[in-house]
Amino acid sequence: MITVVGTGTGAAPAPETLAGAELVVGGRRHLDAVRLPEGAERIVLGPLAPALDTIEEYVGKDRPVTVLASGDPGFFGIVRVLAERFGAAALDVRPGVSSVAAAFARVGLPWDDAVVVSAHGREPRTAVNVCRAHPKVAVLTGPGAGPAELGAALRHAPRVLVVASALGSVRERVERVTPDEAAGRDWGTDVSVVLCLDESRALGAVRTVAGGRAEPGGWALGEDAFAHRDSMITKFEVRALALARLGPRLGDLVWDVGAGSGSVAVECARLGAAAVAVEKTADGVGRIAANALAHGVYVDVVHGTAPEALAQLPDPDAVFVGGGGRELPAVVDACARRARRTVVVAMAALDRVPAARAALTGAGFSCDGVLLQSSRLAPLPGEVTRLAATNPVFLLWGSRIPVSEDGPEEGVAQ
């Protein structure tokens, strides 16, 4: 049997949890805080593989093992690795208080509506995008993905960072800072967790299902769900297919370039992605912000003209390009060279299609597309109905072609 003991927020485990253990495994600070049973072997965790091999030797001989971990070891912790190697039935897990629960307790907030994301041993962009999109996020940090890096990436977002360090110890600190303040400091190695909050929505609504923002009840909303000018809005039939090809999801960043009303950006945000809307008109910028507010989501609105306005934006996972002026090929090319996954282009003019397609393929994308033509039910006098045709729209989408089909898959540290 492997007993896995969570040490709460810095508290040492009770002596009886170690009684009888012949092997005790844990971080150096956890091991230094306990008194080992007489004759027990001690392994300081570094690389997991050698420790797991030693644990297997003890388990194979039916010798008891205790593993010490921080907080709740089943929450982004070592329980996953142990269960994969030895099976869940071999584990006796005794959780402590997780750093996330402790941090929210310190600031007096419920966290059943929070999104928790790990940046420990991972690329920080997913955590940053979740922080952009959601009003209440807890980030488990690591080297290269701490408060300074989060702050630098979130300078323009309306967020406050709560940095909780050395929770449960005599060195405990809980500090509320702006992203700018976080970016300008060296936080050392004591950071336990960072809370990223939109304080205007920090309490949130009463929840039935825990987790972040609830999935929307529908998408490809009608045009009347958005403020727009003179019907200058991506029609819901076009938006439905565009969203299907963009595939916005939690942790993604999506650009809506030539956003107009921002309907695509707002819908992407409703589906959990971080969204940036780029719009050249001042009245359009105001409409986008109002539409985002009306739907209870955050969209980062950039007032500027593409492709120049794109230069300072973080790289997107997916891009939607609306409109279709003479600059369209340059805009599509700029977007395609930055997008990690896909670019979707909507055009009303046939003449723009070849250049947009060439821009996508020239940037290394595969390209496909359709001409969308739809007719909607429309009432006529006398309680009869006709079909009213909408304007046809060309929709192209490009998907990035993998460099090598035989290369190793990208791994994620546990």
From TrEMBL:
The keyword NADP does not apply. It comes from the Bacteria. NCBIfam families: CbiE, CbiT. Residues 1-182 form the Tetrapyrrole methylase domain. Keywords: Cobalamin biosynthesis, Methyltransferase, S-adenosyl-L-methionine, Transferase. This is Precorrin-6y C5,15-methyltransferase subunit CbiE. Pathway: Cofactor biosynthesis; adenosylcobalamin biosynthesis. InterPro entries: 4pyrrol_Mease (IPR000878), 4pyrrol_Methylase_sf (IPR035996), 4pyrrole_Mease_sub1 (IPR014777), 4pyrrole_Mease_sub2 (IPR014776), CbiE (IPR012818), Cbl_synth_CobL (IPR006365), Cbl_synth_MTase_CbiT (IPR014008), Cobalamin_biosynth_MTase (IPR050714). One of its GO terms (molecular function) is protein methyltransferase activity. GO terms for biological process: cobalamin biosynthetic process; methylation. The keyword Chaperone does not apply. It comes from Streptomyces fuscichromogenes. Pfam families: TP_methylase.
